[in-house]
Structures are given as structure tokens and as C-alpha cells.
């Protein structure tokens, strides 16, 4: 056979015959393999996988019943009820206990045992039989059983019945009610353990339910908290887990006591008025009893016979209960299980017959399909004639003539598409590197040259830099051009690219005929003699390069403008960070953290299937992130950096100290004056020393209050007022040397005659600085408010009152100063809204200014709710909070660790202050850890219990 015959392809007759024979062979092999594997899969499924998976499901459902109760118990271990030393204090926590019963229907009772023998139990009266047994009032839903000690340490029993609203319906003294929790196993085990203690399952005496007791010592060790959790739901759900109709399932402990069985009537054994759990032999299920006798390896299917019937059995150990020997027994009738395998085998035989028929019909249709490639080529050429260049031309065919025709037409179509793609790339692609790479690759493909490269001119470096290349491993990255004459450009490139084969160079010039770069095309070799490119080809390349040069110039200008804008934005952010040493780096770190979380949201197709962002959207978001605190440029530094309560531009505690010094000297002067007047030296000395001691203590108290480290109580405020009542004499005019603004605030205040008596600490009218014309338009009804602000405006712009500042309950900021800090977001929105932003940056003001809004609509400055904020805006809120929590450069707090910061964020997510779904994404994807390793100190990178953090979000929100 000649080479030409081989290229023509396979004869049609051989092709048809071979196809039919091959199809029949494939059919036979498929039926045999599928039949064998079907039976094998049925047996394996019956003997192992199905039963093992069933056991795992039972195990998981047991955990589903117990885990909520254990989580509830852990939360209660932190409750202050453990410290309550009387019944009234304990009843104050009744709503918390009742809410736990409501939230977890598997709980029947919650109780607390105290070391002195006192006891409190809250029981849910859900069943009518229980209410009848306890003689509860008609509307009673909860019973509180308590045992307290009277003054003689005699136990006093008491029952209280409450309705659904926790209104007391009936109170009963129960002198015969004596219950010593300390003698109970759950109390003793929990007292000696730091973890949750679970008892063996048993039948609850009061409710008749099957369950177990969970107990845990409170965190402070003052009490033991217990719960009764019902597992009746497990028995009800086990009926749905049967693999077949007559599958038997049971959960037993190490003593063959049945813990769960679908038929509760067979599970309970009555012995008089009491009930107990049945033994496995008493259950009356021979298949399960036989399986328990056989034992064997866990999770391994084993066959056995019972009463002449074949069974498959498996047992799976359970870690959900306290007993380590608890297990689930599963027995499946072999006849029912293998019935599916036989049906599958029959179905495969039917499918095999259908496949055989299809193959026979296929042979008759092959001939008709020979013409299909030709018809497709005809349609594709018609599309080209109709200027549809996007549609590809070419078909796959084993027929030689059709294949050759398809290749020729496909090459022509590819050339047209490349020319069209070059035009589109020049006009639409915004990124210079992407545009050059796309144009060059299409040009190389369209012209059929070996490769090519684009060099761009770097005037400041006197070189041509390689911008992109196709098949260009041999192109140099940089070509020096220092001192060259542009007329000698071709000669220079010939020398630089002498090892690159035959090539052609075309200069790229802008509208001013200035050199931008060079286009180099590597041409095909033509024997030993190198010819110059034909004139039409060169003219075409030069014309195309002119359009490319204009596009390069335009994109270089756009990129230069964008770099300038980015530099100005980052300059502003750096200026804000540099303004205060305590917020340095905030404007730089928040954009990076926000971008990390935003990328995770874009990648998560399950939660955010409808959320996507283009490159322009991402750039808009990054600009907003950099500018999110631009309003801080208007925030006074002494407020942002305020570390003590009396601090303004300096710490005014020094003034207060000097007044104490004056009173100290007054005490000394009074002593000597008394001596000079003939007074008793001892009495005068004692009075002076007492006065000085009082001054020392009072100043120490004022100084401590100035630090703001602890919460100020009412008695602390009252003591400040008493200290402020002390008087000292001022002998100098306090209106000399003051500013114009300060003097204006004293207008209308009469000047006191000298010497004037002054308070040691005072709130004076001039301390309140009015807003004047600087009043920001944040009131909802302010006609100037066109941004939708909704904030409470303090009555004064600033309040320098000494008692007012020292009386700050928490922290160091007054309401006026806190508003000044919060006002930065108002200024951010106003400043950014005033900019003539282009269309693709129109959302920058809202993205930047909404990161202090909350999902529940209680944020600021506009009280937007979650549905009013986009995903990028919610991302900004989480990033801003997390950075602030972990920042190590704040004077008023120590940096928090990862776990502390995430816990605070989790509570905020639970209370709908931030987006809970984004918080879950933040935790589950490890963004917090990635950010921490990059920006936080090593001592902040502690271990994080991610499940516990996510559990906080699922807990009920605070009222």
C-alpha cells in the first residue's frame, strides 16, 4: 500500500463491518461484566456496606439527640446561678433555665445541686399524664422543685407551678420533699470531673420516658448542674432506618439491656408501679439474640441462620453513651436483601437486549451518516458568507477527501477569526499586557510565522523591554539602546536578535510619531538564502502595527492615570494612619483582610451562587476599602488618641494635682496659723495630718478614675461629687490670656471678685462648647441631610467638664468625643459623595461608608438593615471590626488574640450586628488565621475552636 493510499483513510466497507463486529463484542463483554459485578455488588452491599452505614447513622442520630443537651449544659456551667445562695436569687435565673427546656425538646428537667445540700429543679410539664400525676394546675407548664436550708440548717421543700409566661400559679410547701443531690452518682462524678458526665440510660420515674442524666460542674466549682435528656426520639426514628421491611434494629448496653427499639411497648417491662428496660432475651427477637451470642468483629457482616431462615447481621460500637460497651445490633433477612440483586440481574438482561437491538439498527444508519460531514461544511461556509465569523469551520471525518477539505476551510475561517479578534482586542481590552499578548498570538497564528515579540520603550532606563512573546524563549528580556539613532533601529535589532533566525521588525509609533516600541516577527526559513518579506505582507503588518501603537498609547495613558489615582488614595490612607500613632496601619490592613474574605465569598458557589464580581467591581471595592476611613482626617487627634478621661491636648490631671498641692499647702498654713494664734500643737498637727491623708486618698481615687480602667459605679460618682465640693482660693483673673473662642463662651457669665472660691473639681458652663456653624447634618429631620443620616447629635460639640469627664462609666470617651470619632464615617460619606467619580466607581461612597452599619438596623450613620447592604459592604464591616480587635497599636486596650476576637465577632453575628453567613465563611475558610499569620504578633496566634465559635452564632440572640 502506497503512502498516498494510507493518507486517504479507511475504506467505507471495512469501516462498517468493523464497527458492527466491534459493537457486538462490546455488547457481549458489557453484559458479562455487568452481570458479574451486579451480583457481586448485591452480595457485598447485603453483607457489609448497607448494614455498616446503617449502624453509623444510628450512632449519628444518637449524637444528634445528646449533643444539643451537652452544649446547653456547657453554657449553663457559666451561668451565675451557681453563685446564688438563696431561692430568690436562683428564681431570677428561671427564664434562662426554662428557655433551655424550650430550645431542646429532648430535655425533661434541669437542676442544680449545691455543696450545702440545697437543690433546685425545673421540670417541663409537657405530657398530660405527668401533669395529672403531679396534680398540677390546669395551665401549669413548668414545675420548680426546691430544697433550701432554714436558719437551723433544716431542709425546707417547696414546689412552684408556672404557666407559659412564667407567671406563678401555685406554691406548695412540701415538708416531706427531701432530696440530697450530693448522694447521687451524677453529682459525685461531676464534682470530681471538669467535663460532662453521662449516666447509663434508664426509665424516668416521673415521666416514664427513657433517657439519661447529664451533669457538669459549674466553671467556678460552686455547684453541679444536671439535665434529664430523653432518648425516646431515637426509638421512634429507628423504625425509619430499616434496610428492608423485616430488618430488626436494637441498641443494647454491655449488660444486654435494650436501650432503644422501634416498638416501645416491647422495650419497657412493668414490675408493679415501676418500669425498667427489657433485656435482649426478653425482647422476643431471635435474630438479634443470636447476633449478640455470635459476637465477632465490629462493622463486619456475618451470615447465620435462625429458625431455618438466613440472616445477615452486624454490630457497631457506640461512643455516644457513657458506657463504652454500648452497641447497635442490626439483622437483615437474606431473602429480602438478595431480592434486589436478582431484580438488578434481570434488569441488566433487559438492558442488554435493548443494547443489542440498538447496535443492529446502528449498522444500518451508518451509511446515511456519511454525508453528514459534507452537509456540515456546507452550512459552515454559508455562515461565513453571511459574515458569521465566530462560528468555527471544520468537521471530524475519517474519509480522506472530507478531511482535507475541512482542513483548508478551517484554516481560512481561523485566519478571518484572528483578524476579527485582533480588532476586538485593540478596541476592548483594557489591560496593556493582555491586549499585547492577545494581538501578538493572533497575528502569529494568522500570518503563519514561527513566532514574534513586542518590545516597549523605557526611556528612563534607555532600553527596550520585552512586553510579550510567542514561541519566544530565545528573545532577550532587555535590549539596551543608549546613544542609538532611531534610523539605525533595524541594524541594532539585527545584531541583538542575530541568533533568533530570520525576522522582520516594525516600529510602533504614537500619534506624534514618537517611538513606543518594536514589533518583531520570526519568519520561515527559505533554504540557505534569506529573502526579505514580500511587500504586501510588510504593508499589512505596518498598517496593523499603527492601530496597535495607538492602542498602546491609549492604555499607557489610562494606566498612568490609574496609578496616579491609586497613589493619591494610598497617600491619603497613609496620611490618616500617620496622623495618629495608635491607628497606624489600619487603613492598610483592612483592605487586605477585606479582599481575602471577599475572594472566599466569590469562590463559594454553594452559599453565594448568585454573587460575582468583575475586575472593575473588584477595583471599585479595593478603592472603597482604602478610603473607608478617609473621614478620619477630620477627627481631632487628641480625641482619637485620648488615653485618659481628662486628656485633651494634654492630660489635665496635672491641673487637678496642682489644686491638691494648693490644698496641701493650705493645710500646712492652717497648722502654723493655729500655732501662731496659740492653738494646741498636737490637735492642730493631728488635723493637718488627717487632712493630708484625706487629700492623698482623694487624689489617688481621682487619678485612678482618670485612667478609666474599671467600670464606674454609682458610689464612685458620688465620691467624685463629694471630692469636687472641696474649695480652694483663686487669686488670679481666669480671663486673661485666653483665646477668642474661650472668651466668647464666657460672655454672660459674671466674673467673680478676687480672691474667688473655686471647686476642686467642677463642671462649668464654659466647659460646654456649642456646635455653632460646625453642626453636622446628621439629624434625620435636618433639611441639609441629603445622605440619609440618622444619628443622635450631642447637645455640645465638646464638654470639658472635669466631673463630667471623670464620671465616664466605661472607657475614657464622653458622648461628645465618641460622636466625634463616629462622625468620621459621616465625613467619609460626605467627602466621597462630593467627588466626581466615574461610573465604574459610583458605589465607592456606600461601600466605604457602610462598614459601621448593623444587620439589625441599629448601626450608624444611616441605620441601614442587612437587606439594604450589599455583600461587599458586609465584608467591610467584618474586616474593620476584626482588624480593630486584633490591632496591637491602640493605647486604650491590649491586643486580643484570635480566639478572643472571633468570640466577640461570633456574639455580634448572633445578635445580628454582622452578617452571620459571612462570619461562618470567615471561620470555615481560615481567613482569620491567614490574616493573623501575616499581621499579628506570635502571642496572638492562639488555638481556635471553630466549632464552638460557630455554635455561638446558632445560639438564641440576646433580647
Automatic annotation (TrEMBL):
<dbReference type="InterPro" id="IPR029151">
    <property type="entry name" value="Sensor-like_sf"/>
</dbReference>
<dbReference type="GO" id="GO:0007165">
    <property type="term" value="P:signal transduction"/>
</dbReference>
<protein>
    <submittedName>
        <fullName>Metal dependent phosphohydrolase</fullName>
    </submittedName>
</protein>
<dbReference type="Pfam" id="PF13487">
    <property type="entry name" value="HD_5"/>
</dbReference>
<dbReference type="InterPro" id="IPR029016">
    <property type="entry name" value="GAF-like_dom_sf"/>
</dbReference>
<dbReference type="InterPro" id="IPR003660">
    <property type="entry name" value="HAMP_dom"/>
</dbReference>
<feature type="domain" description="HAMP">
    <location>
        <begin position="368"/>
        <end position="421"/>
    </location>
</feature>
<dbReference type="InterPro" id="IPR003607">
    <property type="entry name" value="HD/PDEase_dom"/>
</dbReference>
<dbReference type="InterPro" id="IPR037522">
    <property type="entry name" value="HD_GYP_dom"/>
</dbReference>
<dbReference type="Pfam" id="PF00672">
    <property type="entry name" value="HAMP"/>
</dbReference>
<feature type="domain" description="HD-GYP">
    <location>
        <begin position="736"/>
        <end position="938"/>
    </location>
</feature>
<keyword id="KW-0378">Hydrolase</keyword>
<dbReference type="GO" id="GO:0008081">
    <property type="term" value="F:phosphoric diester hydrolase activity"/>
</dbReference>
<dbReference type="GO" id="GO:0016020">
    <property type="term" value="C:membrane"/>
</dbReference>
Amino acid at each position: 500500500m502506497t503512502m498516498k493510499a494510507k493518507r486517504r483513510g479507511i475504506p467505507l466497507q471495512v469501516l462498517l463491518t468493523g464497527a458492527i463486529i466491534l459493537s457486538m463484542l462490546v455488547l457481549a463483554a458489557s453484559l458479562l461484566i455487568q452481570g458479574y459485578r451486579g451480583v457481586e455488588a448485591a452480595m457485598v452491599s447485603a453483607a457489609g456496606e448497607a448494614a455498616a452505614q446503617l449502624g453509623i447513622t444510628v450512632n449519628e442520630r444518637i449524637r444528634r439527640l445528646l449533643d444539643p443537651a451537652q452544649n446547653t449544659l456547657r453554657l449553663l456551667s457559666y451561668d451565675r446561678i451557681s453563685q446564688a445562695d438563696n431561692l430568690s436569687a436562683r428564681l431570677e435565673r428561671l427564664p434562662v433555665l426554662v428557655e433551655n427546656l424550650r430550645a431542646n425538646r429532648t430535655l425533661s428537667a434541669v437542676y442544680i445541686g449545691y455543696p450545702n445540700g440545697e437543690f433546685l429543679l425545673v421540670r417541663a410539664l409537657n405530657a398530660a399524664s405527668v401533669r395529672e400525676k403531679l396534680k398540677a394546675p390546669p395551665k401549669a407548664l413548668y414545675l420548680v422543685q426546691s430544697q433550701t436550708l432554714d436558719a437551723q440548717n433544716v431542709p425546707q421543700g417547696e414546689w412552684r407551678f408556672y404557666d407559659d409566661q412564667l407567671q406563678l400559679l401555685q406554691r406548695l410547701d412540701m415538708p416531706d420533699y427531701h432530696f440530697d443531690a450530693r448522694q447521687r452518682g451524677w453529682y459525685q462524678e461531676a464534682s470530681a470531673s471538669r467535663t460532662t458526665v453521662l449516666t447509663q440510660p434508664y426509665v424516668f420515674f416521673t415521666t416514664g420516658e427513657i433517657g439519661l442524666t447529664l451533669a457538669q460542674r459549674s466553671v467556678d466549682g460552686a455547684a453541679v448542674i444536671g439535665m434529664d435528656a430523653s432518648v425516646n426520639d431515637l426509638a421512634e426514628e429507628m423504625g425509619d432506618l430499616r434496610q428492608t421491611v423485616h430488618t430488626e434494629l436494637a441498641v443494647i448496653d454491655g449488660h444486654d439491656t435494650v436501650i432503644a427499639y422501634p416498638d416501645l411497648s416491647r422495650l419497657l417491662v412493668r414490675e408493679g408501679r415501676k418500669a425498667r428496660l427489657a433485656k435482649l432475651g426478653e425482647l422476643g427477637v431471635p435474630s438479634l439474640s443470636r447476633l449478640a451470642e455470635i459476637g465477632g468483629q465490629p462493622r463486619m457482616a456475618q451470615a447465620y441462620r435462625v429458625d431455618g431462615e438466613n440472616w445477615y447481621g452486624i454490630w457497631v460500637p457506640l461512643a455516644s453513651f457513657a458506657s463504652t460497651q454500648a452497641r447497635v445490633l442490626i439483622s437483615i433477612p437474606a431473602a429480602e436483601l438478595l431480592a434486589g440483586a436478582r431484580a438488578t440481574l434481570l434488569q441488566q438482561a433487559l438492558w442488554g437486549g435493548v443494547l443489542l437491538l440498538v447496535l443492529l439498527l446502528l449498522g444500518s444508519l451508518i451509511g446515511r451518516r456519511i454525508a453528514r460531514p459534507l452537509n456540515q461544511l456546507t452550512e459552515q461556509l454559508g455562515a461565513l458568507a453571511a459574515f458569521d465569523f465566530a462560528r468555527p469551520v471544520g468537521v471530524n471525518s475519517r474519509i480522506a477527501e472530507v478531511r482535507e477539505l475541512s482542513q483548508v476551510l478551517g484554516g481560512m475561517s481561523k485566519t478571518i477569526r484572528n483578524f476579527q479578534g485582533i480588532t476586538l482586542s485593540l478596541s476592548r481590552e483594557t489591560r496593556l499586557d493582555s491586549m499585547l499578548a492577545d494581538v501578538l498570538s493572533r497575528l502569529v497564528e494568522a500570518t503563519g510565522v514561527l513566532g514574534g515579540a513586542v518590545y516597549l520603550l523605557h526611556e528612563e532606563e534607555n532600553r527596550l523591554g520585552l512586553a510579550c512573546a510567542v514561541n519566544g524563549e530565545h528573545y532577550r528580556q532587555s535590549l539596551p539602546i543608549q546613544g542609538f539613532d532611531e534610523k539605525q533601529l533595524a541594524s541594532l535589532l539585527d545584531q541583538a536578535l542575530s541568533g533568533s533566525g530570520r525576522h522582520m521588525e516594525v516600529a510602533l509609533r504614537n500619534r506624534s510619531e514618537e517611538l513606543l516600541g518594536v514589533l518583531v516577527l520570526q519568519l520561515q526559513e527559505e533554504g540557505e538564502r534569506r529573502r526579505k518579506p514580500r511587500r504586501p505582507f510588510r504593508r499589512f503588518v505596518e498598517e496593523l502595527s499603527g492601530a496597535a501603537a495607538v492602542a498602546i498609547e491609549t492604555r499607557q495613558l489610562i494606566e498612568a492615570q490609574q496609578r496616579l489615582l491609586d497613589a493619591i488614595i494610598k497617600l491619603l490612607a497613609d496620611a490618616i494612619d500617620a496622623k495618629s500613632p495608635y491607628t497606624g496601619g489600619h487603613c492598610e490592613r483592612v483592605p487586605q483582610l477585606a479582599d481575602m474574605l471577599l475572594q472566599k465569598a466569590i469562590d463559594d458557589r454553594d452559599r453565594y451562587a448568585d454573587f460575582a464580581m468583575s475586575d472593575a467591581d473588584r477595583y471599585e471595592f479595593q478603592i472603597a476599602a482604602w478610603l473607608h476611613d478617609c473621614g478620619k482626617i477630620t477627627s481631632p487627634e487628641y480625641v482619637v488618641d485620648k488615653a485618659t478621661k481628662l486628656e485633651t491636648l494634654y492630660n489635665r490631671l496635672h491641673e487637678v494635682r496642682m489644686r491638691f498641692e494648693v490644698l496641701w499647702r493650705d493645710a500646712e498654713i492652717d497648722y502654723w496659723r493655729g500655732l501662731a494664734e496659740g492653738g494646741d500643737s498636737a490637735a492642730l498637727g493631728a488635723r493637718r495630718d488627717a487632712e493630708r491623708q484625706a487629700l492623698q486618698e482623694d487624689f489617688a481615687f481621682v487619678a485612678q478614675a482618670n485612667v478609666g480602667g474599671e467600670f464606674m459605679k454609682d458610689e464612685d460618682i458620688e465620691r467624685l461629687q463629694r471630692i469636687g465640693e472641696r474649695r480652694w482660693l483663686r487669686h488670679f483673673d481666669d480671663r486673661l490670656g485666653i483665646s477668642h473662642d474661650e472668651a466668647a463662651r464666657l460672655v454672660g457669665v459674671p466674673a467673680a471678685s478676687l480672691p474667688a472660691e473655686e471647686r476642686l473639681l467642677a463642671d462649668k458652663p464654659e466647659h460646654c462648647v456649642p456646635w455653632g456653624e460646625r453642626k453636622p447634618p446628621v439629624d434625620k429631620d435636618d433639611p441639609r441631610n441629603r445622605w440619609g443620616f440618622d444619628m443622635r447629635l450631642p447637645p455640645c460639640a465638646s464638654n470639658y467638664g472635669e466631673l463630667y469627664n471623670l464620671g465616664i462609666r466605661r472607657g475614657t470617651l464622653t458622648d461628645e468625643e465618641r460622636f466625634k470619632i463616629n462622625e468620621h464615617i459621616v465625613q467619609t460619606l460626605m467627602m466621597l459623595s462630593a467627588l466626581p467619580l466615574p461610573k465604574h466607581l459610583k458605589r465607592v461612597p456606600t461601600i466605604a461608608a457602610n462598614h459601621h452599619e448593623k444587620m439589625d438596623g441599629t448601626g450608624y450613620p444611616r441605620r441601614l438593615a442587612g437587606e439594604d447592604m450589599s455583600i461587599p459592604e458586609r465584608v467591610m464591616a467584618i474586616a474593620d471590626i476584626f482588624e480593630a480587635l486584633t490591632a496591637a497599636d491602640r493605647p486604650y486596650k491590649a491586643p486580643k488574640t484570635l480566639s478572643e476576637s472571633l468570640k466577640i465577632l461570633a456574639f455580634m453575628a448572633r445578635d445580628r450586628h454582622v452578617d452571620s453567613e459571612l462570619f461562618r465563611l470567615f471561620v470555615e475558610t481560615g481567613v482569620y488565621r491567614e490574616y493573623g499569620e501575616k499581621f499579628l504578633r506570635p502571642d496572638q496566634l492562639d488555638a481556635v475552636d471553630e466549632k464552638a465559635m460557630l455554635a455561638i452564632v446558632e445560639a438564641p440572640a440576646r433580647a
